[in-house]
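Below is how a single chain appears once it has passed through the pipeline. First comes the sequence as given, then the structure the pipeline wrote out for it. We keep one example in the README because the format questions we get most often are answered faster by looking than by reading.
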Amino acid sequence: MKGNVEIFTREECDGPAEKFFRRISGIDQGGEKFKSIAASAEKVFGTIEERINPRGIYGYTENVELAGRRAVIEGVKFDCPAFEQVNCESVYGAAVYFVTAGDFHLDGFDVIDQVYADMWGTAYAEILRGLLRDRIAFRGIPSNDFGPGLFGMNVTQTRDIAGIIDPSLIDIEIKASAMMVPVKSCAGIYFDATPDYRQLGNECQDCRGIAESCSLCEIRQSR
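Resulting structure:
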């Protein structure tokens, strides 16, 4: 499938990424200690700023089959327990994607500086997922973001997404272990769902899956 490459401006990313960073780092708690942490985090940002290169690629298709915990997209099979909670009759199609924020790795720096760099990278990568979703022309509404490492999908399925669209077009390399380089990259799947689609929560009371596929349900039933 031919992928659509999307380039994101720093103006789009910087503000939301900074808010995300502040939330996960806790630097807004106040006090001299956190002022010092904030200053260190800003110094690290200055070191990595030129490496920030936010890009994405996605492909959309109506060639989708969904049954239980399995989906077939463009002939490629995916397995995810949470798929059971998606009504197969409420899906128009699917979009698969990759995003990358750039290289945030620091060599020769203190461990704490490396941690700040990693957190900055996480912030940009997370923001990019939402920005890319908003650029996809869905017929209905986007589902939850399903992908390797999310909702129980095996991380090795990163390679399967790469079998549909080519991440090398935005300079993402997938290693034999399925790890992506640059590390601050993400891959995923959005189903194009009808307007009555209900976003999946994390609570058991919101679950529409079946007990046979849930290890927690199996534990409860054995008691």
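Residues 4-222 form a domain with the NADH Oxidase fold (CATH 3.40.109.40).

See the next section for the split statistics.
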